[in-house]
Hints:
The structure is a homodimer. By secondary structure, chain A is of the alpha+beta class.
Amino acid sequence: MTTKLYCFGESGNSYKAALALELSGLDWEAVWVDFFSGAARSPEYRALNVMGEAPVLVDGDLTLSQSGVIQMYITEKTGKFGGTTPEEAREVMRWMFWDNHKMSSQAGMTRFLMNFLPEKHRNADVIAFNVGRLQAALKVLDQALEGKDWLVGDGITNADLSCCGYLFYPEPFGFEREAYPNIDRWLGNISALPGWKHPYDLMPGNPSDRA
Amino acid sequence: MTTKLYCFGESGNSYKAALALELSGLDWEAVWVDFFSGAARSPEYRALNVMGEAPVLVDGDLTLSQSGVIQMYITEKTGKFGGTTPEEAREVMRWMFWDNHKMSSQAGMTRFLMNFLPEKHRNADVIAFNVGRLQAALKVLDQALEGKDWLVGDGITNADLSCCGYLFYPEPFGFEREAYPNIDRWLGNISALPGWKHPYDLMPGNPSDRA
């Protein structure tokens, strides 16, 4: 049975799992979660993931949520993206936790506040606060990529797949590639990989559907 | 050589690692990071952790940062807190990622904004926004603990050690134990464990030092 990933195009956390699946060579298919119509809050979806989040991976009897856990499972199945030594493996995990804690958490929220939340509910102070947190994280990432093609080792790992989750999106959210030259170059390395796809090409659903 | 944990009492992320070390039975000592005087931004500390964060664990030649990675290392060394089956291990990782992404990230920031940021810099809208995000996470945690003593399996794991990181602190940050009866009961289970210590007793540094 083909592995299914419940996801939607706007979700950078879904993209981390979808891109890992796509680049791993595993056979998988995307199942659209109509997040913006509240599908993730339905009882059916809550049965899949009580946290009401995407992505969720279903592989036979196994159901996994949290993009980081799905990425670790893809590594377990394919031997890819996890680092090649115990030291690299720990460094990969470090970036995954850092990304979840400091970067994607801010990037996803800031992008939501600036683009998907109805204008009447937007608050300039709250947006500025979140942009500030995000930009502090982007600076750390940019410095870590100085002189390096990949965050850990000689090729793409879950560290890169996690940290890039929100950074290919075109909507404004306080991130401009030209302001972070190392991030810009590194995103170029990722998008040059054979099989790479933009989130809106890799997963169903994008803002123009709702325009 | 004794394992060293660079940490400070106010840091819930440090507490996750410190409590895991303490309950694991490993020999360790705390090294105070004078975070509020900017010690984590010093060149010496940046050499230890370029992200300028606490905690950092130093065990012989090994230097690790990110509480989640330190927790995984303690599990590797002791066999404790990682779950007893592959399914449990994934479920433990799921809660660790969820905590980093959705809960501690908000709890730490909200507590900082409400208590440690000078009053003149506090913004009521920003605080309300962060309290809202935190309370949504607390609700998910409270529901997950319904009828359960521990998040995963029959005893304490890294899931509990991660999620409780900020929840024993006395300062106001939008969390009151009595509003979340399952969390309240579960925190009681944790603090009843032999060897448990409150963050301000387990690690050096607390707000009264700076009063």
